[in-house]
Design goal:
Layout: H1 2-12, H2 18-26, E1 29-33, E2 38-40, E3 48-54, E4 57-61, E5 68-73, E6 77-79, H3 82-87, E7 94-97, E8 101-107, H4 108-117, H5 119-145, H6 148-158, H7 168-175, H8 179-189
Antiparallel strand pairs: 1-8, 2-7, 3-6, 3-8, 4-5, 4-7
Helix pairs in contact: 4-5
Length: 190
């Protein structure tokens, strides 16, 4: 839990008072998920904003033949089906762990309480939502402006020590190519 406090204090560039931290931390729940666990199914409404302490998580749209992977979340990052979380509507996609994952989670209702009862709560909430938005925007711009090879190299540069845990079929889906095309990209790079 101290990892989250340090992350927040770094992000908001100020200390969180003990009183506010005690209230905030009292609303957090710690959960461990095994590898290949579905955290959120399509059609369910997201009720948590989560901080990934350890692990890798993927977001995907379930399809009959090949699921469409569109996001990976790594250690020390927020994750949520945020569109579902804020609108309180069912998610059109699923969230699954790719490795064993440990998460610190806060429910929608508890987050609203934090917003109402603390000064720092709104700042933390804003920073978390900005973080999720910036990652989404970066991903969209990458799809519009970069080649599949550039997207693969960027993923490799961002998380070189973790990418080895992601099955190649998910990486191929994420960069928008077939597994065979990814094999050709990897051969060209090495």
């Amino acid at each position: 839990m101290e990892q989250i406090r340090q992350y927040f204090e770094r992000t908001i560039q100020q200390k969180i008072s003990e009183k506010e931290w005690m209230l905030f931390s009292s609303k957090l729940s710690f959960e461990e998920f095994p590898k290949r666990h579905i955290i959120l199914r399509a059609g369910q409404t997201e009720n948590h904003l989560s901080f990934v302490e350890t692990g890798i998580v993927r977001y995907f749209i379930p399809k009959l033949e090949n699921n469409l992977t569109f996001t990976f979340v790594f250690d020390n990052n927020f994750m949520s089906a945020y569109d579902s979380f804020i609108t309180r509507t069912p998610s059109p996609y699923q969230i699954e762990t790719l490795t064993k994952a440990t998460l610190w989670r806060i429910t929608f209702d508890d987050l609203q309480t934090i917003y109402e009862e603390t000064e720092v709560g709104n700042l933390i909430g804003r920073k978390a939502s900005e973080d999720l938005y910036l990652k989404k925007s970066k991903r969209e711009l990458s799809l519009l402006n970069e080649t599949a090879e550039q997207r693969y190299q960027n993923l490799f540069l961002e998380q070189p020590h973790l990418i080895q845990y992601i099955p190649l079929k998910y990486i191929a889906s994420y960069i928008g190519v077939t597994p065979q095309a990814l094999s050709r990209i990897r051969r060209r790079i090495t």
